[in-house]
Amino acid sequence: MSIFSSPKFLRNVLWADAAAGAVSSLLHLLAADALAGLLGLPAGVLLMSGALLLLYVAAAMYLAAYEPIPRTGVGMLVAANWAWVGGCAVVFLMNAGTATPLGQAYMIVHALAVAALAEMEWFGLRHAPRVGWI
């Protein structure tokens, strides 16, 4: 059986998304000043993204733990992920002159990882069985 056809695929992706978000959040919140110097990005942007990620992580964990997984909630997470990708693009463009090459690579990799998670959640949502009204 393929991991994509597993009935636990969506739940596992949600947990992975929550874990990745938690790591990013803690990194941004606990090392904002060091990261700002290393990446050439404003510390305030890193702190704000870390705080927003905490909210996102809470939502992803709630959905991953809920039985059955609320389809509307996952749809909202997918939309939030795509908004985050857009936000990464805006931060990238606004800081193109000051971001270091490492900072530019960080933003690109971050956006690509979030886009991949959004696509996996969307795939999992489309293939998850419909249960009740959620």
Number of strands: 0
Classify the beta-strand content into a percent band. under 5%
Helix count, DSSP H or I runs of 4 or more residues: 5
Tell me, rounded to a whole number, the average pLDDT: 93
Helix share of residues? over 70%
N-end to C-end Cα span: 26 Å
Counting structural domains, the number is 1
Q: What's the order of the H and E elements?
A: HHHHH
Rg to the nearest angstrom? 16 Å
Shape: elongated
**Main beta-sheet annotation:** none
Low-confidence stretches: none
Structural class: mainly alpha
Features:
134 residues, mainly alpha, 5 helices
Description:
The protein has 134 residues and is mainly alpha-helical. The protein has one domain (7-127). Helix content is 78%, strand content 0%. It has helices at residues 9-30, 32-39, 43-65, 71-94, 101-127. Helix 3 (43-65) runs antiparallel to helix 4 and helix 4 runs antiparallel to helix 5. The longest helix has 27 residues, at 101-127. The radius of gyration is 16 Å and the shape is elongated.
